[in-house]
């Protein structure tokens, strides 16, 4: 993805997900198979324990999965609704410094969007995001169950 596309995604977060933007959530890389969303520990996203608040980590993790869906829906030029039905998280270590959330399920996301468009039925899909710190240690892992459905004309 070009820098201008990343700028557009981050501008989108400013206007449509302001709490994520002000918390420091930034899309830093997206291609057909891989996405990366960065989050840096700051005063505005801290918890009382000296690390990044779990909900802010969740915003970054969710966005790392959602960008695939958003990108493929936009590319299809079809109206498709997206909804998180469920999510689970595991926290392994305090989130300090720079944390990067990665999702590697771009192909699965594209297939699900195409299937939702072709069938007109609600399609569910689980996408996983893993957050790692500067040392490469896993800080947290999130799994989001998404529902996709083509909107009626």
Summarize the SSE layout with pairings.
Layout: H1 3-16, H2 18-23, E1 26-30, E2 35-40, H3 54-76, E3 80-91, E4 98-103, H4 106-119, E5 123-132, E6 138-150
Antiparallel strand pairs: 1-2, 2-4, 3-6, 4-5, 5-6
Helix pairs in contact: 3-4
Explained architecture:
- It contains 4 helices and 6 strands, in the order H-H-E-E-H-E-E-H-E-E.
- Helices cover 37% and strands 34% of the residues.
- A 6-stranded antiparallel sheet has the order 1-2-4-5-6-3.
- A hairpin with a 5-residue loop joins strand 5 and strand 6.
- The chain has helices spanning 3-16, 18-23, 54-76, 106-119; strands spanning 26-30, 35-40, 80-91, 98-103, 123-132, 138-150.
- It has one domain: Roll (Thiol Ester Dehydrase, Chain A), CATH 3.10.129.10.
- The longest helix is centred in the middle third of the chain and has 23 residues, at 54-76.
- The protein is globular, with a radius of gyration of 15 Å.
- It is of the alpha+beta class.
Counted beta strands:
6
- Total domain modules: 1
The fourth-level CATH homologous superfamily is Hotdog Thioesterase
Structural class: alpha+beta
Per CATH, the class reads Alpha Beta
Pattern of helices and strands: HHEEHEEHEE
Cα radius of gyration in angstroms:
15 Å
End-to-end gap: 30 Å
Average pLDDT across residues? Answer: 95
* Helical segment count: 4
């Amino acid at each position: 993805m070009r820098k201008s596309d990343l700028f557009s995604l981050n501008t989108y977060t400013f206007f449509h997900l302001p709490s994520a933007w002000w918390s420091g959530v930034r899309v830093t890389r997206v291609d057909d198979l891989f996405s990366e969303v960065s989050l840096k520990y700051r005063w505005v996203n801290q918890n009382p324990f000296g690390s990044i608040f779990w909900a802010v980590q969740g915003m970054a993790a969710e966005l790392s999965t959602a960008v695939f869906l958003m990108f493929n829906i936009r590319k299809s030029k079809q109206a498709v609704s997206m909804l998180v039905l469920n999510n689970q998280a595991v926290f392994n270590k305090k989130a300090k410094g720079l944390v990067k959330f990665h999702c590697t399920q771009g192909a699965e996301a594209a297939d699900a969007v195409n299937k939702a468009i072709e069938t007109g039925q609600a399609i569910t899909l689980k996408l996983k995001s893993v957050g790692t710190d500067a040392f490469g240690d896993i800080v947290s892992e999130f799994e989001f169950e998404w529902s996709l459905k083509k909107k009626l004309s």
